[in-house]
Hints:
- The protein has helices spanning 17-21, 41-50, 69-93; strands at residues 29-31, 55-57.
- By secondary structure, the chain is mainly α.
- Helix 2 (41-50) links the parallel strand 1 and strand 2 (55-57).
- A two-stranded parallel sheet has the order 1-2.
Amino acid sequence: YYSANNAFLDGYSLLDRDRIDRIRHIPCIAVQGGQDHICPPDTALDLHDVWPEMVLRIPLKSGHSMYDSAISTELVFATDCIRDAALRAQQEAA
Length: 94
């Protein structure tokens, strides 16, 4: 349904700089398998080109599955980083 409806983008591309500008301030860590044949790494690299603030982690020997050990490790690392940044922001605001 999502794909059949063009990702609900109404003719826009996620890679449009003006659309990325709306979310540029949000911390983001993307994890992309280097051997992913379903969503090739080029797509993540294209996104990183327009959103260089996004941290991009590419386990080179991993594919598409979040159950791949290297992907899982990166996802836990990314989650911990976002959590730690949020805790630092809370402490600074207090």
